[in-house]
# Entry
Amino acid sequence: MKEKQKIIEISGLSVTFEQYDPHSPRRVNLPVISDLNVSVHAGEIVAVVGSSGSGKSLLAHAIFDLLPANAKVGGNIYYLGEEMRRERIRELRGREIALIPQGTGALNPLMKTGRQITNGRKDDACVGEMRNLMRQYGLPRNVEKKYPFELSGGMARRVLLLTALMSHPKLIVADEPTPGMEESLAGQVLADFRNYADQGNGVLLITHDLRAALGVADRIAVFYAGTTLEEAAASDFDRENLLRHPYTRALWRAMPEHGFAVVSGSQPYVKDLPEGCPFGPRCPDKSPACAGEIPVRSVRGGRVRCVCPGEEEKRGEPDGM
Amino acid sequence: MAEEAANVIRFLLKKMLKAAVLLAGVSILAFALVSLSPIDPVRANTGTTAYLRMSPEKRAQMDSYWGKELPAAERYLNWAADFVRGDMGMSQKYNRPVAEVISEKAGNSLALMGTAWVCSGILGFILGAVAGCFRDRRPDKVIRGGALLLAATPSFWLALLLIMVFSVWLRWLPFGMNIPIGVSHSEVGIADRIAHLILPALTLSLTKTADITLHTRQKMLDIMESDYVLFARARGERGSRIVRRHALRNILLPAITLQFSSVSRIFGGSVLVEQVFSYPGLGQAAVDAGLGSDVSLLLAITVFSALLVFTGNLIADLLYGIADPQIRRGRSHG
Ligand SMILES: Nc1ncnc2c1ncn2[C@@H]1O[C@H](COP(=O)(O)OP(=O)(O)OP(=O)(O)O)[C@@H](O)[C@H]1O
Ligand SMILES: [Mg+2]
# Structure
C-alpha cells in the first residue's frame, strides 16, 4: 500500500479532570483518557467505536481544544506532520478542521438556522452554496428562517453537518452524526463522507454503530474506558480470527449476523479502573500478565494493546499505520 | 392572523381579571391589618394628652371623622364602592384628597425608583457581562469583589455612609427632604430637586446594581460554557465575536425580563431609603398612613403599588413573548 499523508495523528493522548472531592479537602484527579492513539490519513475514514463513556467525545474536544479549564491534557496531536499547539489549533478550527458535535444543543437557540450555517456570511456565493447543500440533504428552503427549536432532531443534525461541509475542511470530526435520521438519509451522509474522503480529505467518524461504520470506514479504532484497545482495518472484521483484541472479538460476536453474543459485565468507570488492562476483568483469555504494563504491538497491519494478541506477528515491522 | 389577535385578547383579559382579583385581595388584606391594628387613630393623630383633654362631643366628632363608628366590613365596602367610582376619599392625616397626596408623593417616588431602576439595570448588566467575559481575571475579580461587598452592605448603613461623605464632609449634596426646608413647593427649581434626588437614588441604585451584576455575571458564565459557545469556538469564532453573536443575545432577554419583574424589589427598597433620607415619597407616606391609621391613604397606596408591580410583571411577560422566538412562534403555531 502506498504511504499516504497523515492528516492527523493523536499519540499518547491523556485527559485528566481535576475535581474537588466533597469528602476530602484535596483535589482528586480523574484520569478519563490515558494513552489514546488514533490517526487519519488522506483519503481515509477512520471510525472510532466504543461504548458510552469510553472517551470518544473527549477525544473530539481535545482535537479542537474545547476541553474545560479543569482538564489537563497530555500527549501529542500532529496535523499534517506538524505538532499542534493551542494557538495553532485556534487558527485551524473552522477552516481546515471541522467538528460535527454530538448534541444539537450546539445550535444557538436564538439565531436563525441560515445564519448559523453560513456562520454570519451573507454573500451570494455562500448563501447559494448553503441552499445547494440544503436541497441535497432534503432540507426545505424555509429551514433557513427557522430557529433550532423548530427543527426535528434529524433536521438539526443535518444543519450541523452542513456547518462542517460549508467550511471545506481537510478533516471532519463527526461525533455521532446520524442518529435521528432516516436510514436512507443516514446512508447518504455516510456515502458523502466516503466521497469527501476520496477527494483526499480525512474523516474521523465517531459512532456507536459498528455495522454502519464497517460499511464505510477504512479503519476502525476501538475505544474502551479511555484508551485505544485496537486499530484494525475494516476488512479485518470479515473474520473473527483476523481481529486482535478479545474485546474487539467480543464486539464482533455481538453483531446481529454473528449471533448477538453479549459479553457479561460492563465497562468500568474511571474511578475504579483495574490495574493493567481495563478489559481484564471481563476478558475470557485473562492471564496474570494482564494486571501488568500492557504494551501496544503492531500485529498484521493493525495495532493492539494486549499481552497475548492472537497469533502475534514475529517480524512486527512498523507498517502503514 | 385573526387567531393570533384572539389569543392576544384572551391573554390580556386573563391578565386583567388576575389584576382585579389581586387588587381586591391586597386591599382587603391591608384593610384588615389596619382594622386589627391596636393603634387608636384618633389618639395617634391628636396626641394622647390632647385626646384625654377632649370633650366627649369633640371625641365623638373625631371618632366619626376617623370612621370608627361603623363596622369594619361596611367601612371597607364603602371605601371600595367609592374607589371603583374613582373617588379615593380624603386623607385624614394630610387633610387633603388622597388623589392629590398620591400624585405628589408618587411623582417623587417614581423619580427616585425610576432613576435607580434604569441606572442599576444598565450599569449592572454591563458590569456583569464584562465580569463574566473575563472570568477569574483582573476585571472580574475587581467587579465581583465590589459587587459582593455592596450586596452584603445593609442599605440603611450605605445611606448613612453616603450622607456622611457627600453631605457632611464634602457638603456637595443636601441630606434629606426633597426640597430645601422653608421653601414652598412651587418655588423649587429642577436643579434643587435633582440635588435632593441624587443621594437616595444612589443608595438605591448601588444595592440593586450589585444584585444585577452578580446575576448577569453568573448567566454569562453559564452561557460561555454552553454547548453553542463551545461549538462557535470549534468553528473558529473568537472572543468579542462570540460575545456579540452568541452570549449577549442570550443574556439580554432574561436580563430585561428580570428587570421588569424586579419592580417589587426596588419598591421595597425605596420605602427604606425614603425613610432614611426623609424623602417625601410613597414609601414614607405609606409608613405615615400605616402608623396613623389613615385608611384611605394606605389603601390607595397599597393599590397603587400593587398595580405598579403588576404592570412590571405584565411587561416582563409581554417582552418575553416578543423577544423569545420559542414563545413568539410557539403561540402562532398553536
Ligand atoms: N467535565 C467532565 N468532568 C469529569 N468527567 C468527565 C467530564 N466530561 C466527561 N467526563 C467523563 O469522561 C468519560 C468519557 O466521556 P465522553 O463524553 O468522551 O464519552 P463518549 O464516549 O463520548 O460517550 P457517548 O457515547 O455516550 O457520547 C465519561 O466517563 C465521562 O463521565
Ligand atoms: Mg460522546
